[in-house]
Design brief:
7 helices, FAS1 domain, 7 strands, globular
């Protein structure tokens, strides 16, 4: 099996996410044993951001790092676990609301694919970049 980074790199839907993780120097962290739960926005999710946002974030590594860490939760939490818990605390430190009443939602994003197992955790693919606040 592959780790979280290898899965993202091998999937053409995560080119922007992979570039962001590399720019924020989080590759080694996400290749470590973890385990981690990653809410991974796909390229279409990043494309929904206002024009210039991605370029600006790639220039502002501390802000980019905060946003990426907001998409990571310690532990390996499957959809069923998240539905039961209702809220989680990200590596960044903020809480994130989870809802499974009408599909599977993480804050303001819909999960497009859940429970993608990696050696060091699990990935849930999002249709929207979730922002703090």
């Amino acid at each position: 099996m592959a780790d979280i980074v290898d899965i993202a790199v091998s999937n053409d839907s995560f080119k922007t996410l992979v570039a962001a993780v590399q720019a924020a120097n989080l590759v080694d962290t996400l290749k470590s044993p973890g385990p981690f739960t990653v809410f991974a926005p796909n390229d279409q999710a990043f494309a929904k951001l206002p024009p210039g946002t991605i370029h600006t974030l790639l220039q502002n590594v501390p802000q980019l790092t905060r946003i990426l860490k907001y998409h990571v939760v310690p532990g390996k939490l499957m959809q069923a676990d998240l539905a039961e818990i209702g809220t989680v605390t990200s590596v960044e430190g903020s809480t994130i609301k989870i809802s499974c009443e009408h599909g599977f939602e993480v804050k303001n994003a819909t999960v497009l694919a859940a429970d993608i197992i990696a050696d060091n955790g699990v990935i849930h693919v999002l249709d929207t970049v979730i922002l703090m606040g």
